[in-house]
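Researcher: Go.
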Amino acid sequence: MITTPHLISWNLTRRCNLACGHCYLDAVQRKSDAVAELTLPEVARVIDEIAEFAPGAMLVLTGGEPLLRRDLGDIVEHAAGAGLMPVVGSNGILLDAARARHLRQLGAAGVGISLDSTTPEFHDRLRAHDGAWLGALNGMRAARDAGLGVLMQATLFEENRHQLAGFADLATDVGAMALNFFFLVCTGRGVTQTDLSGQAYEETLREILVLQAVRPQLMVRARCAPYARRMLGLHAGELAGGYAEWSSACLAGRRYLRIGPTGEVTPCPYVPNSAGSVRWRPLREIWETGADFVRLRQEMPGGKCGSCDYRVSCGGCRARALATTGDLMDEDGKCNYIPADSTKPELPSPRCASAVTWSPEAQHLLERIPSFVREKLRTSLEQKAAAAGEAIVSVDFMRRQRPANLPFSRPDSSV
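Model: Structure:
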């Protein structure tokens, strides 16, 4: 059975008010709307398609800088009205109190804002704009005060990878629900940046996992870093410590897709090869039949990833393999892991069966949680019910166990 996406990232525009040195989209500064980008009627039509085949999906509306689109409010309102979970991905500079309140009133659930250092110097230099760091923090505070969920995003470089605890302090200070650390994939303007070495990658990822353990009140996650499951010792179908059986591994093409400014669809922002355009083909058709999507769902990775005892649960970063070897399914050369001689390649595993059942009322309530966090919440509640000796997850049990950092709850979820 083909899964549906939980998360869709949509680059609404290449227009931007910054010129960041690591931009995968190679976004450009211009005063007028870019030519050939999807119009509001086209965007609305695709939103309706998403709502039909991926109900409840989280829709990240990003750019460039999406706040430069004059119709962003209309897009947010349409997405929320269709039952999706719209989140605005921004650099934060243009997000003042009035704009944040308006987005919340239109149905935006949250914002993801990038911050790439704990002091202004590196962030402002990377983004070629004095004041960008302060603007990002002010944007997060405006979003928080407006009742929007806040995600802090940080791309890791050698210059900032030792600032992890400082990032967590800032995230806590601005009231962020989650802190996402992105490991650079050298595409777009990112090809001019120096990626972390394999050893630095491993060391930094290990520190992030420790940070998550000591900061349970803040959801800390590594993105574009599927090695996390291997470092946690979690094989396919296994869950522990708040990690569901699917979490941390690459979601591209399996639970995630990206739509570009002109409608081109790819499995993730760092895979530039288009599988088709929503202008000419239904999104469901692209998702189900696009060549790269089919490969990601059906093929095992090659090279050392293909012989690894974590080849399913980790599988390496497919975009990084494409960027370095030219083959989407080749090995991820950043990984330094060497399996023991006695290990065998990992085989797919079905979802772990749970002895805990759900009352009809609790199951109905669960279905009203955003799809992107639904399975994580299901896993967490089943673990807690089993530990408490409860055979059934009831509505009362759900409410007693409500996670403090559950991101982007629907206003009508009542959890």
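Model: The radius of gyration is 20 Å.
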